[in-house]
Amino acid sequence: xxxxxxxxxxxxxxxxxxxxxxxxxxxxxxxxxxxxxxxxxxxxxxxxxxxxxxxxxxxxxxxxxxxxxxxxxxxxxxxxxxxxxxxxxxxxxxxxxxxxxxxxxxxxxxxxxxxxxxxxxx
Length: 122
Known about the structure:
Layout: E1 13-18, E2 24-29, E3 47-48, H1 53-58, H2 61-72, E4 80-90, E5 94-98, E6 106-111
Parallel strand pairs: 1-3
Antiparallel strand pairs: 1-2, 4-5, 4-6
């Protein structure tokens, strides 16, 4: 999940997502900063998510599974596949695929290792 990475940058708001075991996880989400309430520091929970963490993250599953299925369907299957993508969380919308780089939502690396036996005669 993405964060600002810059310790001096203004922090997004904190949203609390429920976990299956009843615990919660705090996630910094992009969007307008919620005004600070007197007696509440900037690191306090600003709101509670409308869905559990698992439900939020499950929203990206179809996109990831579709990409994996397409790559597995290649006639010359690679030995390794690496897929990198950004994941943003939103208190109401759940998870969505964000930009992995300045130009793309997904970065895909395919690696083929040619085995010696494939190139020997006879």
